[in-house]
Amino acid sequence: MVELSAPGRLPITTHGPFAVRVRRLAEVAREVLRNPTTVAGLVIIVALLTMAFLAPVLTEPNTPDPYQMPRDWTMRDAPPGTPGHPLGTTSTGGDVFYGVVWGARTSLQLSVIVVGITVTVGIIVGSLAGFIGGKLDEILMRVVDVFLAIPELIFALAIAAVLGPSFSNIIFALSVVFWVKYARIIRGQIIHIKQNDYVDAARVTGDSRFSIYRRDVLPNSITPVMVQATMDMGGIVLTAATLSFIGLAEAGLAEWGVLVSDGQAGISAGKWWASTFPGLMVFLWALAFNLVGDGLRDVLDPRTERR
Amino acid sequence: MTAPAASAPSKATAPLVVSVHDLRVHFKVKAGVAHAVDGVSFDVRDGETLGLVGETGCGKTVTARSFLRLVKTPPGIYAGGRIDFWSRDARRSGEEPVDLLRISDRDMLAIRGDRIAMIFQDPAKALNPAMSIGDQVAEVFYQHRSEDLVGGGPDRVPSIVRRASRQATTAPERLALRLPPWRRQGRALRRRVDELVAGALAETQIANPRKIMGRYPHELSGGMKQRVMIAQALACNPDLLIADEPTTALDVTIQARILELIADLQQRHGTSVLYISHDLSLVRQMCDRVAVMYAGRIVETGHTGAVFTDPLHPYTRGLMAAVPSASQKRGELLAIEGNVPEMVDPTPCCRFHTRCRFAVDLCRQIDPELLDIRDHGVACLAYASAARLGVPETSLPLVEGTSR
Amino acid sequence: MTTLTPEATGSAGSVAGNLVMTLRGVEKHFPIKEGALQRVVGQVRAVDGISLDIRRGETVGLVGESGCGKTTLGRCVSGLSRPTAGGIYFRLSDRDQIALDEALAIPEDQRTNEQKQLMARIDAEHRLDTMSAAARRIYRRNCQVVFQDAFSSLNPRHLVKDIVGRPLRVFKEASGSELTERVVSLLESVGMGRQHLYRYPHQFSGGQRQRISIARALALDPDFIVLDEPTSALDVSVQAQILNLLHELQQQWGLTYLFISHDLGVVRLMSDRIGVMYLGRLVEQGTAEELFESARHPYTQALLAANPDLSADLDVEMRGLEGTVPDPANPPQGCRFHTRCPVAVPQCGWEVDDAVSWLSDMAGGLRGDVPHQLTAAFPDALTAVERRSDFDATLVFADEASAGLVGETLTGDGMPTSMAAALEGVSVEDHKVSIRFTEVDEVTLEDLGGGHLTSCILYTGRG
Hints:
The complex is a heterotrimer.
Chain A: E1 3-4, E2 11-12, H1 17-33, H2 36-53, H3 55-58, H4 96-132, H5 134-149, H6 152-163, H7 167-194, H8 197-204, H9 209-221, H10 223-246, H11 256-267, H12 273-306
Antiparallel strand pairs in A: 1-2
Helix pairs in contact in A: 2-4, 2-12, 4-5, 4-7, 4-10, 4-12, 5-7, 6-7, 7-9, 7-10, 8-9, 10-11, 10-12, 11-12
Chain B: H1 8-12, E1 16-29, E2 32-45, E3 49-53, H2 60-67, E4 76-85, H3 88-93, E5 98-99, H4 105-111, E6 116-119, H5 123-126, H6 133-144, H7 146-150, H8 159-165, H9 171-176, H10 183-203, H11 209-213, H12 222-234, E7 240-244, H13 252-269, E8 272-277, H14 280-286, E9 289-294, E10 297-303, H15 304-309, H16 314-322, E11 371-373, E12 376-378, H17 386-389
Parallel strand pairs in B: 3-8, 3-9, 6-7, 7-8
Antiparallel strand pairs in B: 1-2, 1-4, 4-5, 9-10, 10-12, 11-12
Helix pairs in contact in B: 6-10, 6-12, 10-12, 12-13
Chain C: E1 19-34, E2 39-55, E3 59-63, H1 70-77, E4 85-90, H2 94-105, H3 113-125, H4 133-142, E5 143-146, H5 160-170, H6 176-189, H7 206-218, E6 224-228, H8 236-253, E7 256-261, H9 264-270, E8 273-278, E9 281-287, H10 288-293, H11 298-306, H12 352-363, H13 373-380, E10 382-389, E11 392-397, H14 400-411, H15 417-422, E12 423-429, E13 432-437, E14 446-447, E15 453-454, H16 457-460
Parallel strand pairs in C: 3-7, 3-8, 5-6, 6-7
Antiparallel strand pairs in C: 1-2, 1-4, 8-9, 9-15, 10-11, 11-13, 12-13, 14-15
Helix pairs in contact in C: 2-3, 5-6, 5-7, 6-7, 7-8, 12-13, 13-14
C-alpha cells in the first residue's frame, strides 16, 4: 500500500537520493515548459545555438580568421536573393548571411565569457559582504556604490575607448561594469537567507562558517542570480552591439553590432539588408533570453521561498 | 468580565441576527475541488457571542469570510447554502432577511463596515501603513455616515460639501474646500469627522485619541493597533462583529485586555459577535455558545458550559484532552493520532473517522447529520437513531462515557 | 568581570546534582545606532542580569511575553550569541560552582591570587565565550537546539537524510551506509521512518517537520537541548503529540531541557522549575507547582489571570494588564513592572518618566474631567527637561501659566495613590516645574525559602 507522508501529499517511496533529485529537476523542467512564452524563448535560443554551432557547415569559413567578414569587392551591396547571397552583401562585399551565422558564435562567446566573469566576481564580492558583514560589508558596498554611480553604458564606452577597439577589450569593459549588479543581488539575498533558522541550526551542529555558506546560504540565495544571468545573456549582446554601433568594435568583425553599424550608412540609399538582418538577430537573441529568464523567475522564486 | 454562561438562557430566545444554512464553499486546487466548508449551519442571536472553534484547515476562517464575501473567487466557489442576515431595522420592522451570498455588490458594500464588521488576526497587516490612523478610521464615517457629517446645521449644504462627506470629490474640489466661500463648511466637516474618530478611538480606551490620530500604524504597539481596528469596526455600531483570531498575534496580558474590551463594547452596544479561534480556553471565557468545526463541518455545538463540561463528539473530547492544563500529567496528553484530511472530492463519510478511536464501518459510509440533543448539537453516528438511518442498532459506534 | 552581588540562584537546599548550565549575571545589550554616522546612542537591554542553574535531567522552563528576552537568553545559552556581560558555564562541578560564586561576590581587585587562578581555569574549561577549542567541541556536541519555526529551521533544499545526518558528518562520527542507518534509527525514535529519508521538508506537515528537527538535535546524543517555543506554531492536537514525544525522549535519553515558551500552560506541564522573565530580568523563579499554586509576583499572577486554565472554574475572571512597558533602552531603576502593576506601592520605584507619561495621558483628554488647557500646556509648551537623575528632574516650559497648570495637576487629586505617595516634592518656579521622587535601590531576587525566588518587594519585605 502506498503510504502518505501527510494526507494529500506525495506518496512516500524508498527511492534513493539520485532518483529524487532527478525527479525534482524534472518537476522544475515541467513547470518551466508550461509557459508558452518561455517555450518560445527556448526554441529561439536552441535555433540560434544550433546556427552558431553549425556555422562552419552552413557557410564557408573565411581564411585566415573565420571571425572576420569576408570581403569581395566584386559583390558589393548585392540585394537579398542574389544567388549565393540569400541575405545580400554589405558595402564591402561581405555575405550578410555569413555575418548572421558567425555573429551568433561571436555573441555566444561574448555572453558566456562576460556573464561567467561577472557572475563569479559578483558572487564572491557579494558573498563576502553579505555573509561576513560588518566593516567589510561597508567597504565593499561603498565600492559597489561608486561603480553604480557611473552609468553603465558610458562606463563601458569609456573603458573601451581608452583601451582601443577590439573584441577582447569589449569583453573586458563589459565585465568591469556589470559585475556590481550581481554583487548587490546576492548580498541582499544572503542577508535575507541568513535570517532563517536553518542557518542558526547549522551553526548549532558545529559546522564551519564556510561550510554553512556553501551548503545553506549560497544554494538558497542563488536563484535571483540565475534569473538575472539568463536575462543578461541577452542583454550583454545588446550592449555590445551598442558599443559596436558607436564604433568601438574591431573593424570587419563578424559581429552583429558591427554589421549594423557598417550597414547604417547605406540605409538612406535604400540598402536596408546589411543592417536589418543582423539587427533582427540582436533583437531575437535578447528577446529569447528575456523570455526564458522571466519564465525561470516565475517558476523558481516562489518555490524556493515557500516550498 | 465574568464568564457569560450565567446569562445564556435569556439569550436563547433572542431574535436571530444571522442564520447560516448549509453553507458550502469550495476551492479549485490542482488535485481537484477541495470542500473547505461542507454544509455548515448555525445561528447567531441578538446580543450573543458565538465561538467558532477548530484547528488549522477546519474551514472556520473561510466561513467567516463568506459572510462578507471576502473569499476570492476564483479559486473559491460559493457552492451552496444561504447566509440570512437581519439588520436591526429589519428586526424591528419584521422584514425578511437578506441572503448575504446573493445580494448585489452594491448592497454588500453598504453592509460591510456598517452592519457587519470584521477584525482580523494581524493588526499590522490589516491597517494601511501609508495612512494615518485618523484617516483610516475616518474612512468608515465617510463611507457610511456621510449624512451625519453634514446634516444638522441651519445652512443649506452645498453639493460640494455633500460630496466631500462621501469622499467623492476630485482634487481641485478638495482644494476649493479650503478656500472661501466653502472654507467654513469644509472645516466644519473636518472637525466633525475628527470628533467622531476621536470618539470611536476613545471608546476602545485609547488614552490619547487625538495624539494617536496623527500617528501611523508602525508607531503603535500591537495592542494599540488592535484597538484601532476595533474602533474602526465598531464605529458605525454594527449588528454583527466577526472577530477572526483577533488576539493570536498579541501577548497574553494584552490579549486579555482586548477581549475584555470587546466584551464590554458588546454589552454596551448590544452587538452580536462571531468569535473565531483555535484557543479553547479563550472561547470558553468569551462565548455564550460554541460551534466546533472539523474538516469543513460542524461536529458539535451548544452552550459553552454544556459543551465544555460534557463534550459529546470524540473530536471535541480529543481536543480538550490535548490542551495542557492543570489536570494533565506530563507525557500523557491525549494526542489525536493522524492529521487533518485535505477535503478534496470527498465521499460520504464522517470526516473524523480516520482518527477516531470509536470508528466503525458505518462511519466510513454515512455523513453524520448534526443532531440536536436538548439544545446540544452533535454530528456523530454514536448519537444517531438507528431506526431513522435504517440500520441495525449494533452497527452504530459506541463512544465511551456517554449515555444514549 | 565585575562584581556580582550574590544573587540567590535557586541552588540553595539542592542535593549534589550535576550542573549542566550555570548562568551568572548574563547580559546581552544591543547598541542603538542613529544618524548617518551610525553613532551608538543607547543600548537595548534585552537580557539584563540573569543568573540561573540548570541541573542534569531536569526541565527548566523560561516563560514571558514578547520582548522579555527569553529568546535572546536561549540564543546565548546555545552559543548563537555572545553575552555582553556575565558568564555562561557548561558542566561546572558543584565544587567549582561554590568557589566561583565566592569569587564573584568579591570585587575583582580584592580577589586572592588563588581565586584568580581558579577563575582563569574555569573560564578556559567551562565558560562559553572563553573556552578552549577542545572544550568547545564537547559543548557543541552536547548542547543542541530545537527552533520554533519548523519550516525555516530546515533547509528547504536538503533531504531529510542530509538534515538529520549533518551533525554526524560534521563531527565525523559516521559516513556512508552507517550514517544512513543511524539516521533511520533517529527518525524511528521520533516516530518517523526509513521511508522519510529521501524527502524534502516541504513535503511534510508542521508536526513532522518538528520531529525532524528533534531527530537532528538528538543525532549526537547530547546532554542538553534548548527548546525555543517548539510547539507554538502547531495545532493543539499536534502539539500534544510533540510534547508527549519530548517527554518520552527525555526519559529514554536522559536529556536536560531548557524549555522556552510564552504559553504558561505548556510550560507548567513540561517543566520542573520555571523562571518568569520580564524586560530582561527574572522576576520569579520556582517549581511549577509553587508558581501556579502560590505565585509570588504580580506579573506571574497577571500571566495566570490572563490565560485561565481549561479545567479551572468558569467564574474565575480573566484579567489583562494596563499600562505601557518601559523602554528597554532605559528601564526603571526600581521594579521594572511597576508601570503596569495593579498592586504597586510607593516603594516600587516611581520615576519622573512615570509622572511625565501620566501627564501625557491626562492631557490627551477624554478621560475623566480634565481641564483642556492642559493639552496646550503639555507637552506643547514643554521646551526642555533637565534631568539630574531618574528620580529628580525639572521641566522647563515656555510660559509661567503652563508651568503653573502642570504643577497644579501634579499636586492635584488625579494622580494614582502610590505614585503620589512616592512624590517627595513638586515646586513651581517661574516657568519651571521641579519634580522629585523618593529614590529606591535596584530590586533583587530573594529566596522565599526552598528555592522559590521573587523580586517583588511586597513579598520579600525589602524597600
